[in-house]
Structure formats: C-alpha cells, structure tokens
Amino acid sequence: MQDKAIQAAKHLVGNSRSQIVNADLIAVVIAVTNGEPRSLTIEQAHALPSGPLELGHRSLQSGLRAWVERQTGHPLGYIEQLYTFADRDRTGDEHVQISISYLGLTREEQAERSATHGWRSWYDYFPWEDHRAGVPPVLPDILMPRLLAWAGDAQDPNMSHDRRQRVAYAFGLDDHDWNEELVLQRYELLYEAALVEEAVRGRDNGSPRSIPGRPMIADHRRILATAIARLRTKIKYRPVVFELMPPAFTLLQLQRTVEALAGRLVHKQNFRRLIEQQDLVEETGETMSATGGRPAKRFRFRQAILAERAVAGTKLPLSRT
Amino acid sequence: MQDKAIQAAKHLVGNSRSQIVNADLIAVVIAVTNGEPRSLTIEQAHALPSGPLELGHRSLQSGLRAWVERQTGHPLGYIEQLYTFADRDRTGDEHVQISISYLGLTREEQAERSATHGWRSWYDYFPWEDHRAGVPPVLPDILMPRLLAWAGDAQDPNMSHDRRQRVAYAFGLDDHDWNEELVLQRYELLYEAALVEEAVRGRDNGSPRSIPGRPMIADHRRILATAIARLRTKIKYRPVVFELMPPAFTLLQLQRTVEALAGRLVHKQNFRRLIEQQDLVEETGETMSATGGRPAKRFRFRQAILAERAVAGTKLPLSRT
DNA sequence: GGAGTTATACTCATAGCGAGCATAAGGAAA
DNA sequence: TTTCCTTATGCTCGCTATGAGTATAACTCC
After folding, report:
1. Interface contacts (A, B; CB < 8 Å)
2. Confidence (pLDDT) at A90
3. In this predicted model, what pLDDT tens digit does every residue of B228-238 receive, in sequence order?
4. Above 80 in pLDDT, residue B106?
5. Which of A194, A283, A318, B264 has the fewest beta carbons closer than 10 A?
6. pLDDT at B308
7. Rounded mean pLDDT of B12-35?
C-alpha cells in the first residue's frame, strides 16, 4: 500500500550524501560498594570509558559494552541511554562530533587494581551532592557565598534576581527544599558562575581560586551529572536499585545503597514498609549477623516481579532526618 | 592541574580516525487542535520531518529546527530530545546510520494546506490508543484475539506464558489497569506479533490480513510511539501542556487537551482543583460563552511559574469514567 | 547481666486524590 | 417566560499513602 509515497520518501531517510560525522560512545557505569556510589573511570579518574562507534558494532549498546569491557574488563548489566550531544569537532577540520552517552549499572566485584582505570566515588566529583551526614560544609562555606556573589554581579537587577531565583531553587534556599534530583541544574549553575574548573579551563583565570570537586576531561563531568540525576529520579519509580545489589542482602544494606545514590537519609521503618508492601523482595531464609545488633533477615529480589509487572513502582520514602 | 593526565586522555575523546557515520535528525512535532492530538508529517503522512545533520548546523537542536521549517514552514517552540538509534545503513555500503529523534510541541495555527506535509491525528497511527470514548473496538475485535493467539503459538509453554504476561500488562488484562503510558511497549508487542505493517513489510506475507493503524516509512511510527509515551508521562509532572495551548483558554479546553494526549478522560472537578491549587494559571478576567452552558472564565498560563519554581509538578487526575 | 546496636512491629495524623452531590449561569426549546 | 439541557464551579466524603514516632525483640561486647 502507498508504495509510491513510501518510495518517494526514502531519500529523506537513507540520504545518499555521506556526511563527515564522528560518533563516540560514552559510558557512565555505576556501582555501590560499602555505601559509596562509584563510577567507573579511566585515565586516572579523569575520564569516563568511551570510544568511537565502529562498523563492527552491531548496535549502539553492543558497541558501548565492547568499549567498556576493552578498557576496564568490566561487563555491563543494565544499560540505558542518557543523551546525545554534538559539538563542532575540536580538531578544526570540518567534522561534527557526536557523543552518545549511556548509564550502566553493575556491581563492583573483581576489585582488580589497575593503573589506568578504577572506581571513584561520585562525590569526589560532586562533593556538594552528599547530604547523608547533613549539609556538606563546602556548600555554606564556599559555594553559596560565591553563587550569591555571582548573582549579585549580574549586569542588571533583572538578571540578578533571576540568577538568585535559580540558585535558590537548585540549592534549596528560602522556602525551597533541597531536591536531590537537580544534580545537573546545580552543576550547570556552578559552571555558569565559573565555580567548576571546566568553566575556566584554558581561560586566563587571574587568580586560580580553590574550586571544589574533581574535574574531568571535556564534558565528562557534565555527563556524570546527567547520569546521577537520571538515576536519582529513576530509583523512585523503577526497581533499578537491585541491579546494584548482590544476590542476597539485608534491608539495611538495600537502604544504604538507596541512600548512597540519593545522597540523603531515609526513614528506616518507612523504607521497610514500602519495600515489603510492594513485594519487591522475598526472604531467603538465612539471617545475617550484622556488625552489631540483632541479626537481620536476608532478602533477594523477586525476579518474578519483572515478568509480572515488568515495571513496578518503587518508591523512596523521603526524610529530612 | 593534572594536565598530563588530561592530555593523555584526549585521544579517547576527539579520536583521529574519522568514521563513516550518517546522522539524521527526526522530529515528532505535536499540536492539539479541536481535541485531537496531531503530529506534523510529510510525504502524504507517511514520514516524520527529518533530514541529515549538516555542517552548517550550530547544534542538533538548531539543525532540527532548520529541517522542520524548511520542510513544513512551521517554527518550533519547545523541543526535547527523545532517543538516538543506529542501524547498519540500508544502502549496503559500510555506513552506520544514526537517527537522533526529538519531540517538539507547538500550536497548529497557520493551517495552510500543502500537498507534501500536514497534520495528522496520532490516533490514525495508533487507533488502539484512544480510550476517551471507552475501549476502542479494534482492541477486543481484532488485536486482543490475535495477540492471545500469538502468545499461544509460542514454541514452549514458558515463552507462551511470558508473552501472555506481557500482553496482559501492556494492554490491561486480568487485574492490570490500562496504562496509557505504555504506548511503546504496546507497539513493540504488536510488532513482535506481526500485527503492524512495518513488521511484515517486504516479507512474503501469505495472506495480507487487515492490520489496524496507518504505517509509516522506516521506523518512524516507532519513533512516534516513543514521543507519545514520553509526552503522556511528562504532562503528569511538568507543565508542558501549556506549550500546546493558545494564550487564553478555559479550564475545559485545557482539560480536553490533556485528555487528547492521555487518550483517556479525567474527572472534571478534580482536574480543576489540581490545576488551580498549583497556581499554574491565572484568570484573564474575560469569560467565554461556550458552545452551550454557563460561560467559563478564561485563564492564562502563569509565566511566573517558570521563573519561580522552574519545574513545578503538574499532576493529572486519573479516572476510569 | 547491663549497655549498646540493629531489627521489626505498630500506631497516629495528615495530605492527596478519586468520586460524587449540589448549585450557578447561560442558551434553546416549549 | 418557563422548562430543560448543558457547562461551570464549589464543596464534602472516604480511603490510601506516607512522614514520623513509640515500643519491643534479638544479638554482641564488656
């Protein structure tokens, strides 16, 4: 049917002119070990695993898996596309550089040391994002004063007010609460305010001020921020946390993992209630003699849930404790 | 700092080998007019506006805008990236074809007729998705029997059970409710079951059965499904509906728009409550003499909300009426 | 055996939301 | 003009989800 129309439209899709485009695949691979959320890095923790899309790759995902395994020896489980960026190629010739970024979740098992790659806490890159032990000092001591100064420095009062509003919203000032999902917004504000190294890099920055948070090459830290934001959002409505857990675990371990990701604490009893009433887990029968205190039952994720509901609603109880 | 490490990592990002990659930009442009959600199409409604990424484009977004305006004369407002796909190029030569798809929202104003492009109700492509007037007959009459037959036809009982589960979840059988967000899952199931034309296209399909839903070239219908799913999810927590509304509107018009998108009806009083208590709108002062019945107040979207909260929480009251 | 620590079970109060009833204010038909 | 139909708008009711706190239980370590 309508073959003519389809035929006529073909040229729009598979166009004949071949372009000069480079495509990179970039992976943010996350694991949580000992209550620390970590990201897989290469090049002395300055870059995310990545590599060009090649003809041998059957798909974007398989290409990504190949690169990560080649560079780090780590196989990937759950994978999800994050975002695609484009830049005029930095090499100067007329190329367009496309970066397709992915979020991957695994467990950090074979902790083999390597000079080139390794796991790094994501709070090394974003120290202002960890609110598990209260507001991190870097916020009130360094970032907030500078952000507010930056807002005040704006050309006209309107822009100043606008900046101030955005800062308040992103960082939970005034009547706003701290919203752990706004990782990217915060990073971008800090970038605008030249409070991250990437923003002043290469620029003639008069007095090099101490800037918190470890930088990365190119826009890798921005991609990491995107991944964290996505993950913090996603754990609230999809049972992805389990990708990060060992086969059996206690509810406290599960809670610590969630807290590590969210960067905030949750109410213990309510957390249990939520997890249990959603039938996400089942008891293994064993118990675990904890570090101290009453032994905890061990649970495993109910694989059945994937088949049954395919997508359940995992919810995170929030708390300001 | 760490300039050496950064330098060393450079080659991983801007790699020197240039690849043979084509990148297309594909747009799903949505408007809602007279209670019908419509998508901008070209080539006799068989394709989405699209075109190759070119060197002249400053960014992916601007490239996309350029293509849509060139092909349809329609300027775009809100834009959001959807997904990036890759296929081995169909032309056979060793190229990788990348498609970067976007969702755009506008209003269908200049309804200029054109032979090549136009607006088409998205329910022409997905007749099973419109539940505003109850369950569409195509579901019980045609699709469900065939889907269940397909599930039953599986090789082994396990696969059969699995298929049957997925169908039940996606289409709201058994104790599942109809979930309007699962547009893509439903399309993919129908594709797997060879119940959409794209799945049997080119294949030697013995008896050409009548298959519901208008097809599109390549995987454009799949992209449209992705867009609809995204939009149906998004209207529930972001005030994006307003991109589709005229400057002033009644609450019923707003409700009809939401219903058109969601493909289901909402409880009128609760809808008003939700909209009003969120301070998303303000009265213009005028009233509108409706088609029949008491005149309604007209409202406008509170732009302030964007600055104030940047991201508010718009919520859709669900209903099975 | 007592202190400290974690596990686990309940209770309570409230906000949000699905539903429905009731009234107001127009136009069209009788 | 009266009645009826239709949409607009206000308000109440009841349930559920969830934030928060209290009370035990079951171990380990002194």
Report:
1. 160
2. 55
3. 999 999 998 88
4. yes
5. A283
6. 54
7. 74
Instruction: At B136, list the tokens.
Output: 């569409």
CATH of the domain at A95: 3.90.79.10
Both B304 and B253 in one domain: the answer is yes
Q: What confidence tens digit (pLDDT) does each residue in A77-116 have?
A: 889 999 999 876 555 556 788 899 999 999 887 555 666 7
Rounded to a whole number of angstroms, the distance from the CA of B290 to the nearest CA of chain A is 39
Domain closes at, from A95, A124, A153? A124
Same domain assignment for residues B20 and B117:
yes
Q: Which of A124, A153, A185 is the last residue of a domain?
A: A124
- Restricting to B residues 75-114, those with a Cβ less than 8 Å away from any Cβ of A are 81, 83-86, 89-91, 94-98, 100
Structure tokens at A58: 């059957």
In a domain? residue A222: no
Can you tell me which residue has the tokens 């090789």?
B155
Residue B123: per-residue pLDDT: 97
Contacts of A49 by beta carbon, 8 Å cutoff, 6+ apart: A26, A27, A29, A40, A41, A42, A67, A68, A71, A72, A117
Quick one: chain A helix, strand, coil %, rounded to 5?
A: 40, 20, 40
Tokens of residue A238, six digits: 């999809």
Residues in chain A where the model's pLDDT stays below 70: 1-19, 56-57, 88-94, 110-115, 203-209, 304-321
The CATH code of the domain that includes B278 is 1.10.10.10
CB of B138 within 8 Å of a chain A CB? The answer is: no
Assess contact for B25 and B52: CB atoms under 8 A: yes
Identify the residue whose Cα has the smallest distance to the C1' of C20.
Answer: B269
Looking at the structure of chain A, the number of domains it has is: 3
Asked if the model's pLDDT at residue B9 lies above 70, the reply is no
